[in-house]
Design a protein that fits this description.
By secondary structure, the protein is an alpha/beta fold. It contains 9 helices and 10 strands. The strands form 3 sheets. A 5-stranded parallel sheet has the order 5-4-3-10-9. A 3-stranded parallel sheet has the order 6-7-8. Strands 1-2 form a two-stranded antiparallel ribbon. The relative contact order is 0.14. The structure holds 1-deoxy-D-xylulose-5-phosphate (DXP). It holds the Pfam family ThiG.
């Protein structure tokens, strides 16, 4: 098995890259473009309330740099703290992007934690799915909430590894494992990854993909980190597919003597 015939499928669309990246916090649009290119990402998420994707004709438009012909743009509802605002933001994105219906829903609880408000998230997901949106949803690592969101019709469940922008890595791998056990749609880790090894861990666990922003944009050299993340995601996926050796309590010689002349 090779990664060439191992696509990520989201809402029936096939992708080669399992790294999804955000567009916030970069120095300028050129750095954003170079980092995205180095990451190999095919899905690029954009905060509609913070980024110009056509709302302001006088300002630089991100979509002039990150072309929707080359990338799948994933409008997100960052900055929304209730269902109503999140739904309105998705509708605005759909209008600005000629009926584009794949969105990333995030409804946040407060400024300090940026933790998802799951009650409002569920409310918004319900409205959006009924309105024809394909909803990839950022949520907590609560398996019950994750299942509820899947049952509502979300196309992907995206539990946080840790708080957005914290770089603390995956704090509760057990819960993410339970979510993967219960959900049939792709489960992606979204938020909290700080460096390449943490992205690899998510993939080794069997997550379908990872979405990140801060680890790349906040690195000393974002373009180099984007390239590291690409490799980490691929290595993690390969390791997952290859299957880890069983953990053993005691040593087991790397060059066993059994069956050799000396060992008889
Ligand atoms: C970019 C995005 O959509 C986020 O949800 C989030 O910002 C990702 O989290 P990190 O910045 O911690 O990677």
């Amino acid at each position: 098995m090779s990664l060439e015939n191992d696509p990520l499928i989201i809402a029936g669309q096939s992708f080669n890259s399992r790294l999804l990246i955000g567009t916030g916090k970069y120095k300028d649009l050129e750095e954003t473009r170079l980092a995205i290119e180095a990451s190999g990402a095919e899905i690029v998420t954009v905060a509609v309330r913070r980024t110009n994707i056509g709302q302001n004709a006088d300002e630089p438009n991100l979509l002039d740099v990150i072309s929707p012909e080359k990338y799948t743009i994933l409008p997100n509802t960052a900055g929304c703290f209730n269902a109503e605002d999140a739904v309105r933001t998705c509708k605005l994105a759909r209008e600005l992007m000629d009926g584009h219906d794949l969105v990333k829903l995030e409804v946040l609880g407060d400024q300090k934690t940026l933790y998802p408000n799951v009650v409002e998230t569920i409310k918004a997901a319900d409205v959006l799915v009924r309105d024809g949106f394909k909803v990839m949803v950022y949520t907590s690592d609560d398996p019950i909430v994750a299942k509820e969101l899947e049952d509502l019709g979300c196309v992907s469940i995206m539990p946080l590894g840790s708080m957005i922008g914290s770089g603390l890595g995956i704090l509760n791998p057990h819960n993410i494992n339970v979510i993967m056990e219960d959900c049939k749609v792709p489960v992606l880790v979204d938020a909290g990854v700080g460096t390449a090894s943490e992205a690899a861990v998510a993939m080794e666990m069997g997550c379908e993909a990872v979405l990140m922003n801060s680890a790349i944009a906040g690195a000393q050299n974002p373009i180099l980190m984007a390239s590291a993340m690409k490799k980490a995601i691929e290595a993690g996926r390969e390791a997952y597919l290859a299957g880890r050796m069983p953990r053993k309590k005691y040593a087991s010689a790397s060059s066993p003597m059994e069956g050799t002349i000396v060992g008889k």
